[in-house]
Specification:
- The protein is α+β, with helices and mostly antiparallel strands.
- The chain has one domain.
- It is elongated.
- The N and C termini lie far apart (52 Å).
- 9% of the residues are buried.
- The model has no long low-confidence stretch (mean pLDDT 83).
- Bound molecules: zinc ion.
- Zinc ion binds next to helix 1.
């Protein structure tokens, strides 16, 4: 008997979540329900994946860079509290 296994692995820290191998395309997104195995995971360019712990710093830097690029392109940064 051949046991199939599939997993999503964090490309930064190596954290691993096993997923149903029958699911051909694992959908990862911030819209995942809390409690789902891949909740909080992030798919990034290059087909890489980040676990919730690594997605936080990545997103923080991404937003920071986007704000910086807006500033450098003459755009005004609008600060607001969520
Ligand atoms: Zn990670």
């Amino acid at each position: 008997m051949h046991i199939r296994k599939a997993a999503v692995i964090c490309d930064r820290c190596g954290a691993k979540v096993e997923v149903d191998p029958d699911v051909k395309h694992v959908i990862i997104g911030p819209f995942m329900e809390p409690g789902e195995p891949l909740a909080g995971w992030l798919a990034v360019e290059g087909g890489r994946h980040l676990c919730p712990a690594c997605a936080g710093p990545y997103l923080a830097k991404k937003h920071e860079m986007e704000a910086e690029l807006r500033r450098l392109s003459g755009g005004r940064t609008i600060e607001f509290d969520i």
